[in-house]
Specification:
Radius of gyration: 18 Å
Number of strands: 0
Number of domains: 1
Order of helices and strands: HHHHHHHHHHH
Function: Catalyzes the dephosphorylation of undecaprenyl diphosphate (UPP). Confers resistance to bacitracin.
Keywords: Antibiotic resistance, Cell membrane, Cell shape, Cell wall biogenesis/degradation, Hydrolase, Membrane, Peptidoglycan synthesis, Transmembrane, Transmembrane helix
Membrane topology: Multi-pass membrane protein
Helix content: over 70%
Family: Belongs to the UppP family.
GO molecular function, one term: undecaprenyl-diphosphatase activity
Largest sheet: none
Length: 267
């Protein structure tokens, strides 16, 4: 029990620390599960602890979310942000529903693919962070709807584990001339419907094989994911405003490289 609780806490911490930064929380969790020999039936644990990260974002942004929802009928900026998020969310719905089974049964079961995508994504993030065009849009509320749609199309790349949902949306935003902090903030807003829908759909699709017997481990992972995600969300915007995304590019390359070497060695 002690060992399983410790593993649950470690995986919850990993989820919370990596969900909203562009390093792929799913890739980290799948690789950690592979090397630790941990996998729950129907991936109940891995799916449910993501709700801890979603809840953290809802708590941190509760005031702004409430403002947008209650003023959208009279405030053009609030309405524009709401519509932009829905437009960006739509492509992921289509691709997620059509490709769900292939993603879960093939891509999620290929650790070397995850390691390679971490490395490639890290290289791309380093290049975009340095070479992105000068920004035209300095807030999440100012994005044209066509820009939101392109960001949503980029988000679909995150269906490949190891790519990173936040990484794909941030790279797409930077290429569309969105300022670095605004890119991260729009990624936050887009993650709410995307992650909420993805978790709900996963639970529905796997309802016949879900394993709720380890509720104590799920509760531990959920709680740790929530606390650590709150800290990351509060820290991230200020950090990227000052330093950009290079740290996360190197993080991806190091983790992906270490994982690839370990997998090649037979671990």
């Amino acid at each position: 029990m002690a060992d399983s609780t410790l593993v649950a806490a470690a995986l919850g911490l990993l989820e919370g620390l990596t969900e909203f930064i562009p390093v792929s929380s799913t890739g980290h969790l799948l690789l950690a599960g592979h090397f630790l020999g941990f996998q729950s039936a129907g991936r109940t644990f891995e799916v449910v602890i993501q709700l801890g990260a979603v809840l953290a974002l809802l708590v941190v942004y509760s005031a702004k979310i409430l403002h947008v929802l209650t003023t959208a009928h009279r405030d053009p900026a609030s309405l524009k942000l709401l519509v932009a998020v829905l437009i960006a969310f739509f492509p992921a719905v289509i691709v997620g529903v059509l490709a769900h089974d292939f993603i879960k049964t093939v891509l999620f079961e290929t650790p070397m693919l995850i390691a390679v995508m971490l490395i490639l994504g890290g290289i791309i993030l380093l290049l975009i962070d340095r070479l992105a065009p000068p920004p035209l849009y300095d807030s999440a509320e100012s994005l044209p709807l066509r820009v939101a749609l392109v960001i949503g199309l980029f988000q679909c790349l995150a269906m490949i584990p190891g790519t990173s949902r936040s990484g794909a949306t941030i790279v797409g935003a930077l290429l569309m001339k969105v300022e670095k902090r605004a890119a991260a903030e729009f990624s936050f807003f887009l993650s709410m419907p995307t992650m909420g829908a993805a978790v709900a759909y996963d639970l529905f699709k796997n309802r016949d094989v879900l394993d709720w017997s380890a509720l104590s481990q799920i509760a531990v992972g959920f709680t740790v994911a929530f606390i650590s995600a709150v800290i990351v969300v509060r820290w991230l915007l200020g950090y990227v405003s000052r330093h950009g995304y290079a740290l996360f590019g190197w993080w991806r390359i190091i983790v992906g490289g270490a994982a690839a070497i370990a997998l090649w060695a037979g671990f």
